[in-house]
Amino acid sequence: MRRIALGVCYEGTSWLGWQSQAGGNTVQDVLEQALGRFTAQPVSTICAGRTDTGVHALNQVVHLDTTAERSLESWVRGLNALLPDSVSVQWVNEVPDDFHARFSAQGRHYVYLLRQHRVRSPLLQGRVAWVYRPLDLAQMQEAAQHLVGQHDFSAFRSSQCQAASPVRTMTHIRIEQQGDFFLFRFSANAFLHHMIRNLMGMLVYIGQGRQPPSWALHLLAQRDRRLSAPTFDASGLYLAGVDYPEQFGIPSSKPDDLLYELSGLRFGETAQKK
């Protein structure tokens, strides 16, 4: 038996998220169907960072156990020949038996791409979120810094969240703007169900001047989801990657290049190389 790790990229607009459902139409369902055909045996997968309906992934890490003997390149090409156009395997590695896509993960990274303009763009529909009211970058950046560190994020978890604890450690939030586009980067040890979309709802309210930056601190202290802003649009949210101990050899993601394809803009360090 071999343990195989995959890096999966998908455009999530047409999918009901990652996790398998009775009615199908999830990324896990279609990936396991392709794996079953490719290996000629039933396959069960485990991932890090389960995504919701309409959410995208740039480098979602998945593992499986199999007796199938194939070259790594054959795994990539063979699976992609069996997957729909909106889902693609980016890389495949054989990993040791103690690797676990979920439990070996040390950190998770998401990016959110938002466009502020008085008119929506049909060319970006489903891939970039949109607001028409102006946003104040400095106000959102100030609010975001209140979220960094270990906090009880009960005010930003879904009522359907099954996590045993609402406490998470947010290691990094960065918000950048180029023209009409805003890029939000979130890094944490783990995230709660709908946590980023609920944080985005709050940050947009603050950016629009509907609440002050200190509202972030107030919501953290109150720990009441009912007091916060509505859950924000899924379309701009991307699971960018997952961190693992170096000995497992899991490729890291480079989200900026793919985001450039969507928006035509460079953010952060890549902006210096343009």
Automatic annotation (TrEMBL):
Residues annotated as catalytic: 52
Catalytic reactions of this protein: uridine(38/39/40) in tRNA = pseudouridine(38/39/40) in tRNA
Keywords: Isomerase, tRNA processing
Annotated positions binding substrate: 110
InterPro entries: PsdUridine_synth_cat_dom_sf, PsdUridine_synth_TruA, PsdUridine_synth_TruA_a/b_dom, PsdUridine_synth_TruA_C, TruA/RsuA/RluB/E/F_N
Annotated Gene3D superfamilies: Pseudouridine synthase I, catalytic domain, C-terminal subdomain, Pseudouridine synthase I, catalytic domain, N-terminal subdomain
EC number: 5.4.99.12
Quaternary data: Homodimer.
Protein name, as recorded: tRNA pseudouridine synthase A
Natural source organism: Alcaligenes pakistanensis
GN (gene name): truA
